[in-house]
Specification:
This protein is of the alpha/beta class. It is 38% helix and 12% strand. The strands form four sheets. A six-stranded mixed beta sheet has the order 2-1-3-11-4-14. It has a four-stranded mixed beta sheet with strand order 6-9-5-10. Strands 7-8 form a two-stranded antiparallel sheet. The radius of gyration is 25 Å and the shape is globular.
Length: 551
């Protein structure tokens, strides 16, 4: 669930729930669909040409979806012709919700992602068809993926026991550990300082940055630490608080609230722990000394980038970000090369952790949903199954082999093995080569990219950063997996979370910037309970137990 809950989302969900009270929800088929008898993996997937109408978000980098190498290759291989219903990212949610609410003129397939609560609610009305029989009896390529990752069916199964959507799977390991901090190596060298390893040493370094004129312009204009509200991991809290407690990433069906899982399977929120309070006190002390700029909590990423690339000289000592691409102009400037990765710091009680989401590969959970309006659901499923073929997955991320990437170059790979490919088409550029990675796929190959000799090549920076942080990642068992809620659970949790998340976020920023958490701690905890924290934790616990006990 996204951090901000839109009015459209709430209204549509309520519409579905109340509609369910007025008519009996369509029960999922128990005898299974009638199948063609074609062996799994048969190409083309249909002997006669079939048209599929697909609702899909148009990505700005893709110049044309019809005159597109990937589209043409798929249609040639499968005998499926796509009738595109393309929408912009700004219009997607509204148009999807309106289509579902009216139930009129539904496409055959919704592709590219759908909120899980919407999926479950409309599946209960019979709008979406169950897929588990197709997976069991007609799948080849997706079954191969499940064999390598047997946890997948549990992550895909709705509370009613059915699977209604296929995922986008992207095993991009650097993204799983990406709440990182960077520090100005030039300034450290000029002041004769070593990179800090503890929170106390970090504060001392920030003090030196503030008072000893490391940029050499004769003015006390250095900003020791700064971040931004909306960049890729450009908020400093996640990095710093992991020196006080395990402070995980948000998401995984929790409404953007951070939880940990105990060895006994108990769900615990982190923002009401005493160690969390201690970390907030530390950050407020940085603010009081002028070491952490409070503009961090109001400025956007563009403002941070402008400050970072200040003409003439640097004035930022340390800043958070998933990579240099978070805050730097890597095309027109080399200033980012003056900054080095700062590994996780050891806190006052010996905690030294990093945020880790081992389930981030489940990147677009409800990526491919077949509607009950589809006249050829088996064809629609077999078409999607083909996306998980390894060569098709490569094409869907890199483009046409031999033109947009070089297969099997005689080079070493990032992970130290033999390279599977070398990219030619630059990711992020405009093209007609593929669909920008937002359809079903199995991205198993990022670590198999050819190693670029440039140490400042972005892929190298991110890979090396992941290796440096990996030893500090918590065990996977303590990380909350993606959870699927019933429609009733989702509505109740959403109603509470709107106020709860706002209160947590506003309190955290207020305590960091103006202080007061010590004297207000008891009242803060009471207000969490008044809003409904205990009930939300119960709902998350119920969903987790359902996941943990699933076969």
């Amino acid at each position: 669930m996204k951090r901000t809950v839109t009015v459209v989302f709430v209204c549509v969900l309520l519409t579905v729930l109340f509609a369910g009270c007025g008519k009996k929800a369509a029960s999922a088929a128990t005898s299974g669909p009638a199948l063609s008898g074609l062996p799994p993996g048969t190409l083309p997937v249909t002997q006669e040409k079939v048209d599929l109408r697909i609702f899909f978000q148009q990505e700005s980098q893709v110049l044309d979806y019809v005159d597109n190498k990937f589209t043409k290759h798929l249609e040639e291989q499968t005998n499926v012709h796509i009738n595109w219903e393309l929408v912009s990212s700004q219009d997607k949610t509204q148009k999807l919700n309106l289509l579902l609410a009216t139930g009129q003129d539904l496409p055959d397939v919704f592709m590219g992602g759908m909120d899980t609560s919407i999926l479950v609610a409309y599946a209960a009305q019979g709008t979406f068809i169950p897929l588990e029989d197709y997976i069991d009896k007609t799948s080849l390529w997706f079954k191969n993926v499940i064999a390598k990752h047997p946890e997948l069916p549990k992550m895909m199964t709705a509370p009613d026991g059915h699977i209604y959507a296929l995922p986008n799977l992207a095993f991009v390991y650097p993204n799983m550990i990406s709440s990182r901090m960077w520090i100005n190596r030039v300034w450290l060298d000029k002041l004769g300082l070593k990179a800090p390893t503890t929170t106390d040493e970090y504060r001392d370094v920030l003090r030196a940055f503030k008072t000893r004129d490391p940029n050499g312009n004769g003015r006390a204009d250095e900003i020791p630490l700064i971040g931004a509200t909306n960049g890729w991991n450009t908020i400093p809290e996640t990095f710093i608080l992991n020196s006080f407690l395990e402070y995980p990433t948000t998401g995984n069906g929790t409404g953007s609230i951070r939880y940990t899982v105990s060895p006994q399977g108990k769900i615990t929120p982190v923002f009401n722990q005493e160690a969390y309070r201690d970390g907030i006190i530390y950050m407020n002390e940085l603010v009081k000394e002028g070491l952490l700029d409070t503009v961090t909590f109001t400025q956007d990423i563009n403002q941070l980038r402008q400050g970072f690339e200040n003409p003439g000289y640097a004035y930022i000592g340390s800043l958070p970000g998933g990579g240099a691409n978070s805050f730097a102009d890597r095309v027109n400037s080399t200033r980012y090369q003056d900054y080095e990765l700062l590994p996780p710091l050891k806190g006052p009680k010996g905690v030294q952790s990093t945020a880790y989401n081992p389930y981030l590969y489940f990147s677009i959970p409800n990526c491919y949903v077949i509607t009950s309006s589809c006249k050829n659901p088996e064809v629609a499923f077999r078409f999607a199954d083909y996306f998980y073929d390894e060569q098709i997955s490569l094409w869907s991320r890199l483009g046409k082999p031999g033109e947009d990437y070089t297969p099997n170059p005689p080079k070493a790979a990032l992970d130290g093995g033999t390279a599977l490919y070398e990219q030619i088409l630059v990711w992020g550029s405009q093209h007609k080569a593929h669909w920008q990675n937002t359809q079903p796929l199995y991205n198993f190959f990022d670590a198999k990219s050819a190693l670029n000799p440039d140490p400042y090549y972005l892929t190298n920076i991110l890979w090396n950063a992941m290796l440096a942080y990996q030893p500090y990642a918590p065990k996977q068992e303590t990380c909350l997996p993606p959870l699927i809620y019933t429609a009733d659970e989702a509505k109740e949790m959403n109603d509470i979370n709107v106020a709860l998340i706002q209160y947590i976020d506003e309190s955290r920023i207020r305590f960091i910037t103006t202080g007061g958490i010590e004297r207000e701690w008891a009242s803060y905890l009471r207000e969490l309970d008044n809003i409904g924290l205990k009930r939300v934790v119960e709902i998350v616990q119920t969903a987790y137990d359902r996941f943990a006990n699933a076969k």
